Amino acid sequence: MFHPLSIFVGLRWFFVSFITWVSLVGVCVGVAALIVILSVMNGFESELRDSLLALSAHARVVARDESASPPTASQWQSAAAALRGVSGVAGVAPYIDIQAIATHQPATLPVVLRGIEPAAEGSVTEIARSLTHGSLADLRPGSDNVIVGSIVSERLGLAPGDRLQLLILTVGDGAPEPKLRELAVAGTFEAGSPESDSALVLTNIEDARALESAGRGGEGLRVRFRDVMAAPALAGALSKLMPRSLTVIDWTQDHASYFRAIRIEKTMMSLILLLIVAVAAFNLVAMLVMVVTDKRTEIAILRTFGTSPPRVLSVFLTQGLVIGWLGVALGVALGLALALNVSTIVPVLQNAFGFEIFDPDVYNTAIPSEVHAENVVIIALAALLLTALATIYPAVRAARTAPAEALRYE
């Protein structure tokens, strides 16, 4: 006979019971659903991060608010040189942001006029990719050319070649005074981020600096890292290289509210979906209790042949753990297969059943999916723990079965 006895009996009762397969499928579906949903949410988070950072810096070096006097040009140049010498920094470029009101009769729109240096290393790669009309070469010093976001262009009715008026609040010796500046639209860009597309107007930094001399602008350095996820650690290291008049702000601080909301949503979604596995675990408890009741005679016979209560306990622990481990293994395999092929599976389902998961007018790209190994490990361990705990009560109940009582009416 196959030894040990508890494994032999536990596996035999597992394979001959239909309800055990139902419990196994429940665990499998719960684990697969968790992996697929979290992978899709990871994909959406990555897409949001990419769109937010398309025209944003991985980190910004700006003057401290409490600084007594703004940094000089030589201080900005020294800071940029120090940043370029740090390992992990892909590029450094100066910029100027000026708050303004854009007008193109009869519409008006609040915008941010951003002066950039088109030839700066690592500063314009994403901008160039986002261009729908025009070229960064059009932003020549003294040309007064601008490139506007797609939503700004749509709301103001702008096209390349049109003239755009910017109303800027100047600050002189007396009261603030608005001044109007006319610029030429040389092109448009679409970064995929409403924050940039609906409010950003790009121009050459020299043209912006000429406007800033009469207005109130924000000067700084844009820093791009080779690894965007290393931004918080690298920003901390860069801060130590900067003078006290300058501070470093990374993208996780600029967009903290977005990603905090996503983390909360992912946590709540994980807890809700974990209930599927919990329900499967409760179903496992009910199934094993039914098996114990159904096998009372067999348990009593085993006991009369000298099988000890711990061995009876191990029979049902074996059965429950096999269901849990096999269900989790199949769930992980199914979940990974679905998560890695979401972009292929979803169109097939939409064509087969004639429905749209997302409105194409709102979201017209493939559903993203990004599998994180740590998520898969945590889900698998949580499911194994729940199914293992679910086997304890039925196994203890089986071990306490009294042979005489079970065989009295047989």
Explain this structure to me?
- This protein is α+β, with helices and mostly antiparallel strands.
- It has two domains: 195 residues, no CATH class; 197 residues, no CATH class.
- Helix content is 53%, strand content 19%.
- It is built from 16 helices and ten strands.
- It is elongated, with a radius of gyration of 32 Å.
- The mean pLDDT is 78.
Q: What is the strand arrangement across the widest sheet? A: 2-3-8-5-7-6
| SS elements, strand count | 10
Q: What overall form do the CA principal axes indicate? A: elongated
Strand content: 15-25%
Separate helix tally: 16
Mean pLDDT: 78
Q: Label the structural class.
A: alpha+beta
Instruction: Give start-end ranges of low-pLDDT stretches.
Output: none
Q: Termini distance?
A: 27 Å
Task: Tell me the series of helices and strands, N- to C-terminal.
Answer: HHEHEEHEEHEEHEHEHEHHHHHHHH
Instruction: Please estimate the helix content.
Output: 40-55%
Gyration radius over CA: 32 Å
Q: Tell me about the largest β-sheet.
A: 6 strands, mixed, barrel
Give the total of domains: 2
Summarize the structure.
With 410 residues, this protein is α+β, with helices and mostly antiparallel strands.
Topology, pairings included?
Blueprint: H1 5-15, H2 18-53, E1 59-63, H3 73-84, E2 89-104, E3 107-116, H4 125-130, E4 131-133, E5 145-149, H5 150-156, E6 163-170, E7 177-189, H6 194-197, E8 200-204, H7 205-212, E9 217-225, H8 231-239, E10 246-250, H9 251-254, H10 256-294, H11 296-304, H12 309-339, H13 342-353, H14 373-390, H15 392-399, H16 403-407
Parallel strand pairs: 3-8, 5-7
Antiparallel strand pairs: 1-9, 1-10, 2-3, 2-6, 2-9, 4-7, 5-8, 6-7
Helix pairs in contact: 1-12, 2-10, 2-12, 2-14, 10-14, 10-15, 12-14, 12-15
